[in-house]
Amino acid sequence: MNLSEELDKIFEEANRLIGSSVDEADLDKNKNEYLGKKGKLTSVLKNLASLSIEEKKTVGQKANDLSKSLEEIVSKTRENLKTKGFKEQSEKEWFDVLRALGETEPGTLHPITKIQYEIEDIFTSMGFEIWDGPEVETDFNNFGALNFTDDHPARDMQDTFYLENGNLLRTHTSAIQVRALRKLKPPFKIIGPGRVFRYEEVDASHETSFYQIEGMVVGKDISAGNMLYTMEVLLSRVFEKEVKTRLRPGFFPFVEPAFELDINCQVCGGSGCSVCKQSGWLELMPCGLVHPNVFKLNGLDPKEWTGFAFGLGLDRLVMMKYGIHDIRYLHSGNLRFLKQF
Ligand code: DAH
Predict the structure, then answer these.
(1) For a 10 Å CB count at each end of the chain, is N or C smaller?
(2) pLDDT (tens digit, 9 = 90+) per residue, 284-338?
(3) Closest among 158, 165, 130, 133 to 146, alpha carbons compared
C-alpha cells in the first residue's frame, strides 16, 4: 500500500470513528487519535521525508486536504453532539409548572387590612370618599396646617422621625385631612386610611409604626350630634351589635372642642374587667369639631364652614375585636398568628 492509499484508509477510519463519538469528550479523544501531535494522520506526514519531491507535493497536498476535511467533520460532529446534549437534558430535566400541588395554602388578608376594608365599606355606604396621602410628609402638612404651634411637644424629636431634608414620617393620618381641605370644595366627607410612624419604645401596646383611619366632614352647621351619630353607626357595624359610647373632653390643637370617645368594654360588656381596668369603658377614638384656625390655615372661611374630624386607631380596634393582648403580634409576620383571621 503506498502512502496515498494509506492516507485514504486512515481518513475513512477516522471519519467513521469521529462520526460515532458519543459525547464531546469522546470526540476529543477520537480527534486526538488522528489529528493530535502523535495522531495517525500526523505520523504519516512525518514519513514524507523518504519520498521524492514530486510525491512529497501530491501526498503532502492530499494529507493537508484530508486533515482539513477531518477538522470540518469534527466541528460538525461537535455541533450535533451539543444539540443532542441539550435535547437529552431537556428530556431528563423538566418539571410541570402547572402540576397540581398536593397541599396549597392560600394567603389571607392581614386582620388590619380586613378591618380597614370593612370600615371603608361602612363609610363609603354613608357617602364618604376615600383619600390617600404619602407616608413622608412635610412638617406643615403634619403639624403646621393643623394648628400645632412651633413649640408643641408633639413635634419633639422623641415622637417624630425627621428626615435629613426637613420632611418627616407622618405621625398621624391627620395630614390627610389637610390635603383634602386644600383640594376639595366643601361640603365633603372623607376618610383617609394609612400607616403612621412614631419614635416610641415598643411594648405590648406601643409600636413604632401603626395604622389609623382619619375622618373629616365639612359642611354647613355640622354639630357634635352629627359626629356622635356617625361614630355610633360605625361602631355598631364594626362590632355587629349596639355599642354604648360616651364622650370625655380631650385636647388636640386641630379640634375645638376636642373629645375622647369611649365605648363600653367589649370584653366584659361594661361590668368591669382587667382589660378596661374595672372601669367598664375603653378609650377608642379621639375626635372633635374642626378648629377655626385649621379652616383659616387651609384657605377656608371658618364663619362659613363647620366640621368634625376623628382619628381611629386600627391596631387598637383589631385588638379589641379579636381579644389580642399584644400589638407586637400584628407586625410579627408570625404565620401561626396570622392564619387565624
Ligand atoms: N391625629 C390624632 C393622633 O393621632 C388623632 C386625632 C384626634 C384625629 C382628634 C382627629 C381628631 O381627627 O379630631 O393622635
Answers:
(1) N
(2) 899 999 999 999 999 999 999 999 999 999 998 888 888 888 889 998 889 889 8
(3) 133
- For 111-338, CATH number out of 3.40.50.2000, 3.10.450.50, 3.30.559.10, 3.30.930.10 equals 3.30.930.10
Q: Say whether 5 counts as a known binding-site residue.
A: no
Q: What is the pLDDT of residues 69-91, one digit of tens each?
A: 999 999 999 999 999 888 888 88
- 235: buried, middle or exposed (CB in 10 Å: 19+, 13-18, 0-12)? buried
Alpha-carbon gap, residue 324 to 331, rounded angstroms: 13
And the C-alpha cell for 5?
Answer: 492509499
The pLDDT of residue 157 is 67
What is the rounded average pLDDT of the residues 167-181?
97
Residue nearest to atom 4 of ligand 1 (CA): 172
- Mutate which of 155, 172, 284, 295 for ligand 1 pocket (most atoms within 8 A of beta carbon): 172
Determine the atom of ligand 1 nearest the C-alpha atom of 196. Answer: 4
Q: Are 169 and 270 in contact (CB under 8 A)?
A: no
Nearest protein Cα to ligand 1, atom 6: 311
215 alpha carbon – ligand 1 mean position (Å): 9
The residue whose CA is least distant from atom 12 of ligand 1 is: 310
Beta-strand pair 188-197/129-130: parallel
Task: Give ligand 1 pocket residues (Cβ under 6 A).
Answer: 172, 174, 214, 252, 255, 286-288, 309-311
Burial of 143 (0-12, 13-18, 19+ CB in 10 A): buried
pTM for the predicted model, two decimal places? 0.70
